[in-house]
Specification:
The structure is a homodimer. Chain A is α+β, with helices and mostly antiparallel strands. The first copy, chain A, contains three helices and four strands. In chain A, a hairpin with a 3-residue loop joins β2 and β3. Chains A and B meet through β1, β2, β3 and β4 of A and β1, β2, β3 and β4 of B. β4 of chain A pairs antiparallel with β4 of chain B, so a sheet runs across the interface.
């Protein structure tokens, strides 16, 4: 994560079904694929009761291209049909950041 | 979470030290306090290897007031000195959202 703001963040929060067979494998595959996308900066993720995954992108166009990626579209469909009770996606402009 | 974009998100990612005594208690206290702040909308959080906490706010002013809250300042100091190996804060404008 070496880029300075402004850049974009996609906040993906989700609640999984109890039996989400095949989910972990697909999640790993999607991270691998996302990392190869143009404009990808990084991704951070954690899950307990809910999952919070934040991916970082150089532009809205990069986000849009990833959203329409064929393999990602398949994952999205499986997510809706098999894996998620609920999810929410927020497209955000990162304006400022600081760290310790 | 009933507000429509634009609103603000604060993405807080952190790596905790192994022995973070008193952390859980303070984290709960901070969530309770944040919920009482003007302009607070909601918070979502998960932790495995890293922690990802996203809080949602109506304005930059609300975020700034919370950052300067006396109890929160104490927590921030304890965080730097006792609990975190590393953390990063990103202030973001939520431009668009959709859910399933």
């Amino acid at each position: 994560m070496t880029i300075n703001p402004p850049y974009y963040a996609v906040i993906f929060t989700s609640v999984k079904k109890e039996n989400a067979k095949g989910y972990e494998q697909m999640a790993e595959k999607m991270v691998t694929l996302a990392k190869q996308q143009p404009g990808f900066i990084g991704v951070e993720s954690a899950r307990n009761e809910i999952g919070v995954t934040v991916s970082y992108w150089q532009s809205l166009e990069a986000i849009s291209l990833w959203k329409q990626h064929t393999q990602h579209l398949i994952a999205q469909e499986l997510g809706k049909n098999n894996w998620y009770k609920h999810y929410k996606v927020r497209i955000c402009l990162v304006e400022r950041e600081y760290e310790f």
